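Hey, resending since the last one bounced:
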Amino acid sequence: MHPSCLAQDIYCARWLNSCLKNEDVILEAHSDEVWFLQFSHNGKYLASSSKDQSAIIWEVKEDGQVSLNHKLIGHQKPVLTVSWSPDDQQLLTCGQEEVIRLWDVVSGECLHVYEKSGAGLISCGWFADGKGIFSGVTDRSICLWDLDGKELESWKGQKTLRISDMAITDDGKRIISICRETTILLLDREAKFERWIEEDEVVTSFTLSKDNKFLLVNLINQEIHLWSIESDPKLVSKYKGHKRARFVIRSCFGGFEQAFIASGSEDSQVYIWHRCSGELLKALPGHSGAVNSVSWNPANLHMLASASDDRTIRIWGLGHLNIKHRDQSNGVVHHCNGRS
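The structure tokens again:
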């Protein structure tokens, strides 16, 4: 059995031993569509961003309840994304073709504003050491800054679209970005070597796995592709079932050893797949608008969050996930709600 598939069996076994009925929590502090959300690395916070030009830092309590900690005001346009510093002490928020703001998580104070003359910023993220940030810019460039706002490096695109989604591997060596409609760039900063993921359909978003070995790519044709990117990119698996017609829908890895794939959908549901087999395990109803983004808590594997056009965030507990899969070694079906 493949190690990642074995990890899924271990994960479900742990669920079988610890299943508790959790009612989902609905968070309603945003006044417009919620576009993005992300749990902190330690799982103690959740950050969300909205069309209402604000971001919110939520605190995740030990009992699973979630409360508003800080509402971050200052952007003049909708806030596209958020990004946690490696130590979870600071948060980046990226305005739509505007500026990036750096916030102190404890106080809620804005510490710095990053901007580029004559251009807007459309993505943001951190270096693994927490000493610098990066951004995609509307002038088709990729910029790197230190925390004081000094520009360290910049790459100018050629015949590319505007740089939207971006990521940097934990070793700081590879920059990953959407650079053309159907293409993702894998840039080795040290070797100055480029590799490419070429899709047949338009790429709308992507997510880098925790181990930096895989990329989850959302496509305009309502498919999600899993790519191995350790050496030459290789398509590993495909996930189908969710709906995507007009909006950017984001997906995530989740569970023990990131054994599952979760995604938002325009039909107001959250979809969950078995990562190895590609089997659709669950569609979670509850939202009344398109689900734009999902995030799985890295510290509490029984907690999944979703952000929607209905202006709410839902926190899904173990009782609602109720995932099951078949153990390929003995044919037994395991139910992750405590039954087998």
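The domain at 1-23+210-340 is CATH 2.130.10.10 (Methylamine Dehydrogenase; Chain H).

Sorry for the duplicate.
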